[in-house]
């Protein structure tokens, strides 16, 4: 049986392209360089000693986590208000939230380890930390909503609304926790007068880490979004198309 | 049917009246949820096992009991819709989904308010807190505004769970983080109302503003979002 397939077969379509493989290679080399910079080339901190090296992981993961949720919100808005209600935006939102949840988890773990070393405790009820946990849980909920089933458009609409509600929720959570109590270490790179207080190479490593992790995020979302597209295609086409593809492979 | 009879407000009134009438007749809230909340209040006392601490944390315990019970109340309010596919019927009838949302919210606000009245009385007895007249006025205001926030979020996420049949387990995961600001604000304000930890009445009123903003924001957001969330 030779039917025309309206979509690329999930079994033979790779999620990588020449461009994304190039991006992956850049990310890999960047990570190697970041590891060398963070562990060997940069000096210890006067106060924190080697502990400060956690910063090169913690700050970029936190940055990516927040970036991911901004991307999810923007992509959801573009889906909701776009004339076409393009599922591509929905899948970008979903992929970005998945990656964001992972990085938020990593950021919480590295943050609590760093906190143990510098503050002497794994956890402080400080606004930024508490808001981060709420963001984490909220987006775990968002991913659960994406899993509710139904048509793709239904999934996109529901999760789009939940993502936009989260945009309203998180600032309120943050504001209420700020009112509740505040302890967090002040931002350390930029002092209020704008003078950078970090050693040149340390600052470079930190910013380099942020850049590499941003590229890593882009690479992961790109691939994940393509996987989600293929998963939707399987849903649309059913198992039959996949089976047929297998059979033709065997011949 | 005239245009007037299906306007948002008349739908809201019809839904709220219907929900409250069902509740009045079935007495699920009174016979099942209230005893549950009561036993939770007693269990808190067992767990903390110290009169001084109990008195100090009584406001938080009251609001925790309210939040946990609100999960059951919200589930109940949508169970009566999904039992006979009533939510589908309402949608097929083409009435305003914002009206359904507002009606559900209003019924929830009323139920929660009565519920909190009983819990506060219980805390006066069980946790030996004191309530002045000024404190009572603050507490009623706080309860009313906090309920608007809880009801709006509850109606939204409860509706989402009900529309995706059999996925009501999602409700606590979505609702509890979302209403955290309500818990914080209502607890702090109730501390002032009870006068625990040296809190004065004046310290309680600023939290009322936060509750008002929360309630207004999500009631507005809910009227826009409810239709999409409950879509089949």
Describe the structure.
The complex is a heterodimer of chains A (251) and B (232). The model of chain A is unreliable at 182-186 and 190-196 (pLDDT under 50). Chain A is built from 6 helices and no strands. In chain A, α2 runs antiparallel to α3 (87-118). Chain A has 251 residues and is mainly alpha-helical. Chain A has one domain (18-40, 52-183, 198-229). Chain A is globular, with a radius of gyration of 22 Å. Chain B is globular, with a radius of gyration of 18 Å. Chain B has 9 helices and no strands. Chain B starts with 7 loop residues before the first helix and ends with a helix. Chain B has 232 residues and is mostly helical. In chain B, α3 runs antiparallel to α5, α6 (133-163) runs antiparallel to α7 and α8 (180-194) packs antiparallel against α9 (201-229). Chain A binds chain B through residues 134, 137-138, 140-141, 144-145, 148-150, 154, 157-158, 160-162, 164-165, 168-169, 172-173, 175-177, 179-180, and chain B through 156, 160, 164, 167, 170, 173-174, 177-178, 180-181, 184-185, 188, 207, 210, 213-214, 217-218, 221, 225, 228-229, 231-232.
